Amino acid sequence: MKPQAEIGVVGLAVMGENLILNMADKGLAVACYNRTTEKVDEFVGGRGAGKDILGCRSLEELVAALRRPRKVMCMIKAGRPVDDFIAAVSPLLDEGDILIDGGNSYFGDTLRRSAAAEEKGLLYIGAGISGGEEGALTGPSIMPGGSPAAWPEIKPIFQKICAYTDDGRPCCDWVGEGGAGHFVKMVHNGIEYGDMQLICETYQMMKDGIGLSNEEMAEVFAAWNRRVLDSYLIQITGDILGHRQEDGVATVDIILDAAGQKGTGKWTAAQALETGSPLTLIGEAVFARFLSALKEERVAASQQLEGPGTVFPEDRSGVIADLEQALYGAKIISYAQGYQLMRVVAEEQGWQLDYGAIAQMWRGGCIIRSAFLGDIQDAFKTDAGLVNIILSPFFKQAIATALPGWRRTAVRAITAGIATPAISAALNYYDGYRSARLPANLLQAQRDYFGAHTYERIDKPRGRFFHTNWTGRGGATSSTSYGG
Questions:
Q1: What are the helix and strand counts (H, E) for the chain?
Q2: What is the C-alpha to C-alpha distance for residues 471 and 452, in angstroms, rounded to an integer?
Q3: pLDDT over 70 (residue 297)
Q4: Which candidate, 176, 195, 149, places its Cα nearest to that of 347?
Q5: Which of 10, 251, 370, 438 is 20 to 30 A off residue 212, Cα-Cα?
Q6: Quick one: pLDDT at residue 1?
């Protein structure tokens, strides 16, 4: 077979099919393969009919159809299937050929796979892709990392098919070596969890707190989408609230309140625990999904456990205005925490992440796209070494403006017995972060009392540790493990 395709894609689920169609629409010749070969015939003869798409019935046929250096992209389920795919296709490739994983792989797996591929003379790319099926078809956000030598080869392809911002910038650029691309996508998904939970909490405050109808809430979200909260998730929330079934029943009202998840939010929270990063809002968003899944337990508990059961007596417009400020302030904290985690892991891995460029990649195509990301990009343009976005002049002022309404919202929620774990966690983080002194001195004393774990002193240099014989019955021996 004469090589003719510029890239091969393996996996014809929704994302794989739509990416191939996107590539073909952008003038790229694409070869495709699926383990269930009937799927290849259906796709090429159906959605792909009449396009420059070559259906292949084996990996050997796919590889033979590719121009050099060959670029083989898998769009398959993360985990073992990716390792099995690499094991099957690697012997068919030559030195300098490029393997691309466009799925939601864990970045630690991508680190391992990238190193193993390079040992064989191959190049490896772990590309985080966000935008769902619509984004894959019309232009997603793409976050590639892995072997730097592969980037010049895949850049023309990825920047043809990615989303572009209104000012003409591609929502795809090089992230970094090893697993950097999939790591940034993981943090993106964690922030997505946070954004969605924050929106759901404001929805419940409006629904249960002041008794707004779905249509009224849809109008509120539409109005918010014209101001600082302008974003894809706010837009679709308004659309969802306004949607009705053919029988007139509001669609959102018949959906079971038990949330699902694919795991990337959990990975983000677990990485925060591993690195000691205070990712409190995203952690609460993950736990909120777990709590929602206990549907039967919650129904039983609702019949036994008491709560205030009150609604807000204040003027509706004032409550709604405060909710907008609470949502905006908490959203800033969510991104601040996500960027803190990226900074910590980048230092551990030796990655030189461009945080402004990451905001640029997220401005279009992806699920968390919003006007707000332009403000983050501007903050890092002004100060590339910014350690926390809430310390930038823009966001300091934004939070100062949001705080009164944000605090009133938290008080109302507690008074009414409406759970707002993410909004409250964000406010607690802000108040903790701005505190020059926290009660951890007492905590350290407790640890030293029961476990001789030692402590540092405010009147001595950092890094020197001390132990007190609190009871008079202990000795001078202290624990050798300070971190326990």
A1: 19, 8
A2: 12
A3: yes
A4: 176
A5: 370
A6: 55
Q: Do 62 and 1 meet the contact criterion of CB atoms below 8 Å apart?
A: no
CA dihedral for 289, 293, 299, 304, sign (positive or negative) = negative
For residue 75, CA distances in Å to 15, 64, 374 come to 7, 19, 30
Of 195, 208, 186, the closest CA to residue 237 belongs to 195
Angle at 199 between CA 194 and CA 204, to 5 degrees: 125
Enzyme catalytic residues: 185, 192
**Partners of 100 in the β-ladder:** 73, 125
Angle at 376 between CA 370 and CA 378, to 5 degrees: 115
- Cβ atoms within 10 Å of 168's Cβ, excluding its own: 6
Secondary structure (3-state) at 141: strand
Give Cβ neighbours of residue 74 (< 8 Å, ≥ 6 apart). 9, 10, 11, 82, 85, 99, 100, 101, 102, 103
Mean local confidence (pLDDT), 435-451: 95
Angle CA 138–141–143, to nearest 5: 140
Q: Report phi then psi at 20, rounded to 5.
A: -60, -45
Structure-token pair, residue 187: 């943090």
> What is the pLDDT averaged over residues 353-369?
95
Indicate the DSSP class of residue 390. Answer: G
- Give me the torsion for CA of 421, 427, 428, 434, rounded to 10°: 160
Gap between the Cα atoms of 421 and 200, Å rounded = 11
Three-state SS at 145: strand
Q: Which of 171, 214, 198, 225 is nearest to 377 (CA)?
A: 171
- 425-432 mean pLDDT: 98
Note the pLDDT tens digit of each residue in 308-353: 977 776 789 999 999 999 999 999 999 999 999 999 999 999 999 9
Contacts of 167 (CB under 8 A, 6+ apart): none
Q: Model's pTM, two decimal places?
A: 0.93
Instruction: Say what the alpha-carbon torsion angle 406, 290, 101, 109 is, to the nearest 10 degrees.
Output: 110
Distance CA 414, CA 411 (A): 5
pLDDT over threshold 50, residue 483: no
180: how many CB neighbours lie within 10 A of its CB?
A: 29
Query: In whole angstroms, what is the distance from residue 59 CA to residue 25 CA?
Result: 24
Counting Cα atoms < 13 Å in the Cβ hemisphere of 449 gives 8
C-beta separation of 56 from 62 below 8 A: yes
Q: What is the pairing mode between strands 71-74 and 141-146?
A: unpaired
**130 three-class SS:** strand
Q: What is the pLDDT of residue 472?
A: 85
Mean pLDDT value of segment 459-469: 95
